[in-house]
Design goal:
Helix content is about 35%, strand content about 20%. By secondary structure, it is of the alpha+beta class.
């Protein structure tokens, strides 16, 4: 049901408590027969109740109550009837007086003055609503300011929920240890440079001075006392750099103490899984970048 502005104003004044007894009875009757109108009244009571929670109770001074009692006693004295003692009358009793019937007065019709009074009542009601709305707006602004700057002053139900902000701080990765081996025939002629990352155990081998042979392939081997026989690390590619992750199969102690060797094998690598020729280039790892 669509309600007029007067209905909404009436509901607001009922919640505020500014209606007289007759108007309150009218509103309560409307609430009893119209649940939607009752919901409007409850909504105003909730809004005004929130404002009431924000105002603390104030104890009046003792002089206020004394003034009230004094005013009540003074008013009672003024309204008390004056009772005079009866005196005997020597005059004869007066004849009874017959009261005349009051003249019949016709019911007043709607005049301009009554219309003006209704308009004044409506204007007063909307002035009250405007005052309520202004008070609510000011209270909301005050509540927002308190929530931001001093939330501890608010009741528990009105305090804002704590905000938790997660900040991710990325720290730069510390460099891992780096190892290098020069694979060469003698000190004057390095053929390959082998680089090993201690964290990932990936290796990169770079061809420096080695000259390939037609129909042959260079193959890299790991030779260690911890292994029964040399282990192939794969064929070295034809480009300048070859990267492989195969060292992850070995522990760091075996890698750091091993000898790395290069043999010349048939194209594509040794068919047996073991060197088919004597290594021509060898070397051991040395630490070039320490771990941090």
């Amino acid at each position: 049901m669509a309600y007029s502005e007067d209905h909404i104003a009436l509901a607001a004044e009922y919640a505020l408590g500014t209606l007289d007894a007759e108007e309150r009875a009218q509103v309560e009757t409307m609430m009893a027969v119209d649940s939607e109108f009752g919901a409007i009244v409850q909504a105003w009571e909730y809004r005004l109740g929130t404002l009431n929670q924000m105002v603390g109770s104030i104890e009046p001074r003792p002089i206020v109550w004394e003034n009230i009692k004094a005013a009540i006693g003074h008013s009672a004295e003024q309204q008390a009837p004056l009772v005079l003692p009866e005196t005997p009358s020597l005059e004869p009793a007066a004849e009874p007086v017959v009261a005349e019937a009051p003249p019949i007065v016709e019911a007043p019709t709607a005049t301009d003055s009554s219309i003006i009074r209704l308009s004044d009542a409506r204007a007063k009601r909307w002035r009250n609503i405007a005052s309520i709305t202004s008070a609510m707006a000011a209270a909301l602004v005050a509540m927002l300011a308190v929530q931001v700057y001093q939330p501890d002053l608010l009741p528990e139900a009105l305090r804002p929920a704590p905000r938790i902000q997660t900040v991710e701080v990325k720290t730069p990765a510390l460099p891992s240890a780096q190892y290098v081996a020069l694979l060469q025939r003698d000190a004057a002629s390095p053929a390959f440079i082998l680089t090993v990352d201690a964290a990932t155990r990936n290796f990169t081998i770079r061809k420096v001075g080695a000259e390939g042979q037609p129909g042959k392939s260079f193959e890299l081997w790991l030779v260690s006392d911890n292994l029964p026989q040399p282990r192939s690390l794969g064929v070295i590619g034809g480009s300048d750099f070859t990267a492989r992750p195969v060292l992850s199969d070995f522990d760091s102690g075996t890698i750091n103490n091993a000898t790395f060797a290069v043999t010349v094998e048939p194209a594509g690598g040794s068919p047996t899984g073991q060197p088919t020729s004597t290594p021509i280039f060898t070397g051991k790892l040395i630490e070039t970048v320490p771990a941090r």
